[in-house]
């Protein structure tokens, strides 16, 4: 903990560098928004020209190997770069105010690489034909994305994507301490953002083998990521998080659960 606090204050840049760091944070955030919005269309098969069911054709075995490798790159980047021990070492190289933006930059690159190199498996497992049912299913799936979006704001959107850090640095302030938050969504489940992804990925009017592989891979990653994240949250927030974990379910709200 003391090391983390120390790292927050390491490499505090001078005035000349601040503008560049802020510009870096803003450009990374804008790039992330574009790639993430594209990813919504890519997964859903809506609006964008190139989706999860498009791309270079490959034999099934090759497609599975390539897609699993891409998912693993994505998972490794998220898992390793989010760990406190990595941040502690990383901020000896990268100025501390740029750390989160750099994480977002690498996450954006991993997502773009995944979409770019994804090999389609377009054979259908199910395909709902009734139009109004398709509309309902799309609405639920897009609701999952809306939940992701809402959860980022519930927890601290600008901090999660590195903007708060670069803007505080711009005005000469150091990084704020981590705050344990349990706004409304976080009183229903501990991981509403991940729950939103699971809904968005699995609820589909047309399920191809490619999308199924994507849904299985990302859900598996989320289940592993939760363990690591909660381990770090307990390290940071101690008994507050331990108690919270006993009271609030992980991903699926309890029927009639008391919220408070
Ligand atoms: C991508 S967000 C996902 C948050 C959460 N796992 C979810 O699914 O809603 C990951 C960041 O949120 C932070 N975080 C998770 N739960 C938190 C809470 N209740 N209060 C403050 N920060 C939290 C973690 O420390 C991590 O930096």
Automatic annotation (TrEMBL):
The keyword Transmembrane helix applies. Its EC number is 2.1.1.334. It comes from the Bacteria. Pfam families: NnrU. InterPro entries: MddA, NnrU_dom, Nurim-like. It is found in: Membrane. It is an enzyme of class 2 (transferase). The chain crosses the membrane at residues 21-40, 60-80, 101-118, 138-163. Residues 68-199 form the NnrU domain. Keywords: Membrane, Methyltransferase, S-adenosyl-L-methionine, Transferase, Transmembrane, Transmembrane helix. It catalyses: methanethiol + S-adenosyl-L-methionine = dimethyl sulfide + S-adenosyl-L-homocysteine + H(+). It is a multi-pass membrane protein. Catalyzes the methylation of methanethiol (MeSH) to yield dimethylsulphide (DMS). PANTHER family: NURIM. Belongs to the nurim family. This is methanethiol S-methyltransferase. It comes from Rhodococcus pseudokoreensis. The lineage of its organism: Bacteria, Bacillati, Actinomycetota, Actinomycetes, Mycobacteriales.
């Amino acid at each position: 903990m003391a090391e983390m606090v120390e790292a927050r204050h390491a490499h505090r840049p001078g005035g000349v560098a601040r503008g560049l760091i802020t510009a870096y944070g803003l450009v990374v955030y804008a790039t992330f928004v574009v790639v993430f919005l594209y990813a919504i269309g890519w997964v859903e098969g809506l609006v964008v020209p190139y989706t999860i069911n498009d791309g270079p054709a490959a034999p099934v075995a090759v497609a599975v190997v390539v897609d699993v490798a891409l998912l693993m790159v994505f998972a490794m980047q998220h898992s390793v770069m989010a760990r406190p021990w990595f941040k502690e070492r990383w901020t000896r190289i990268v100025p501390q105010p740029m750390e989160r933006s750099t994480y977002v930059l690498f996450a954006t690159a991993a997502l773009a690489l995944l979409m770019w190199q994804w090999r389609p498996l377009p054979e259908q497992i199910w395909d709902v034909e009734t139009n109004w049912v398709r509309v309902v299913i799309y609405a639920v799936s897009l609701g999952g994305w809306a939940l992701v979006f809402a959860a980022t704001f519930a927890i601290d959107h600008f901090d999660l994507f590195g903007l708060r850090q670069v803007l505080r640095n711009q005005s000469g302030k150091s990084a704020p301490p981590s705050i344990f938050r349990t706004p409304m969504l976080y009183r229903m489940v501990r991981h509403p953002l991940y729950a939103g992804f699971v809904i968005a990925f699995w609820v589909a009017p047309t399920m191809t083998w490619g999308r199924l592989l994507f849904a299985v891979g990302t859900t598996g990653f989320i289940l592993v990521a939760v363990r690591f994240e909660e381990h770090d949250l307990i390290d940071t927030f101690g008994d507050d998080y331990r108690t919270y974990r006993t009271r609030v379910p992980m991903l699926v709200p309890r029927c009639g659960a008391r919220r408070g």
